[in-house]
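Comment thread on ticket #2218

A.B. wrote:
> Attaching the input chain for the structure job we discussed in standup.
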Amino acid sequence: MENLDYGIIGNCKTAALVSKHGSIDWCCMPDFDSGSVFAHLLDRENGGFFSVETADDGQVTQQYVNKTPILRTRYQSESGVFDLYDFMPRYKTDSGFYHCPPEIIRFIRVISGRPAIRIRYRPRPAYAQSETQRVITSEFLKYWTKDGPYESIYLYSDLPLEKIADAEAIRPEKDCFLLLSYNQKITHPHIDWAELEFERTKVYWMGWTSKTTLLTKYPKEVELSSIVLKTLAHQKSGAILAAATTSLPETIGEQRNWDYRFCWIRDASMTISILSRLGHYNVAKRFLDFILNIVPYKDETIQILYRINPRRPLEECQLPWLSGYEDSRPVRVGNAAIKQKQNDVYGVLMDAIYQSLLLFSSSIDNKEDLWTVVRTLTRHVHNNWRKLDSGIWEYRTERKHFTFSKILCWVAMDRAAKIALFFRKQPDAMSYTRLRDQIKKDILKKGRHPDSGALTQYYGGGSMDAANLLAEHYGFLRADEPVYVSTVEETYRQLCVDGLMYRYREPDDFGTPKSSFTVCTFWMIRSLYRIGKKEQAVAMFEELLKHSNHLGLFSEDMDFATRRLLGNFPQGYSHLALIDTALTLSDTPLWTDPSEDLPGLSPEE
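C.D. wrote:
> Ran it. Output below, let me know if you need it in another format.
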């Protein structure tokens, strides 16, 4: 049984996964959502990889360089000791631009002896759909696709290229490097250049991490999680991706395999809130700009997810030539969820807009455009909140009156009323408040279990949904209200197994869920703490932290019995919720809303 024992390296342009033994088993170039160059993760025979190994037996250990996503893998054997530093260059140039090319530098530092190194380099561009050809020149080793879509990749090194191509043992006497580049280099790289790229990248990340301003009881976990979020933030657009991978299964051998290399609007407001609380205002502001740039005017369609380049089409298809992670087929690229109707998106967008006004009002240029967007979203809520939708968990064939979708419609109107007051539009604020209260009354009448009083997954049902734990986070309920306490307790009773949470337990399009959804476990921990069960919450959190991978990273899902990591990796939403939970358990002051609460219904009305 394998675990996702990988480290992520990236530079906000793209990313790669490096195994604990030093093999790059997943990387897409030139962008996060481009075709893969290495897809060993999804096909052990044909996907392609790039490994650095000891030619003799030895011990391998791995860790991140302090406060950076630079990965250090140490190899110790009888012939010698060397460190492999894997990173993608990223730093700010003298002209003020960010240098983040589609490149991987593998910097080898000899510690002692004359270690025997073997490099196995097997690129398979364009998702390994066709065979590759290669050529060795005096400057580089080039691979390109033989048939189908043309792609190519270049490898530069101060080690003998012939020996690299043939996987022969090499005994370097001094530091050396390997440079994988999507582009052909104009000037030939050398060891001094590689070392300078390493130092400048390290300084950049240490400087960025030092901007984290909040103190918590879990500083290392919060720091690493913030680096993961930053690594998944696309430099050009400001979008933050859900994960760096596609088609890593939620359950081995089943079909819950999705492409997560896109930006989900649902994650927006929580991401902005957390990053702002940590002091990373620039990342939060750029993400807000991305959100505001894609929010449609008037009658245009709102999507639930977007590519990092919103103008490029996003369609789902399958890659049948790839065998899948441990034969979990199909391998998918694109995501058909883009076609779904999910009414929770209105609340998320409105919450993000409201936060933008509170945090960045002075730098928002055209507030009239923003007000038009707000009015458009309220019209969408008015027209759609009573309708069926696919819900937060993206049911593909069934629509229901999901309670969480209704709660987020309430959020949309609550924030719309506050935005209206911000713009001194009192009549609009009163109109939005009336609809807000109408939605809440409907939820409390139809979305609660008749016996326990807890919020149910959908109107008329009796099962729980972990998403409803966010009712307190969004301000729909207070932590001490009986409805919320009952929701937390009943959700724990129905969905928690040995300290891990299901999203829900009812059958869906693909059968009965079998794995734990990591973000839901963090939500439960936070909720338990908020209703006063603090010791239980802390114990549950610290136990969960033990089941990250060897570097502290989390994926989307976890096996209940083995605690094996499953699903796409690393999952931004899991690390976002980790930060939020750590801040809650540390009693870190919440981000405060300076506006007064609007009058409205109590839960008992």
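A.B. wrote:
> Thanks. Noting for the ticket: The first strand starts at residue 6 and ends at 10.
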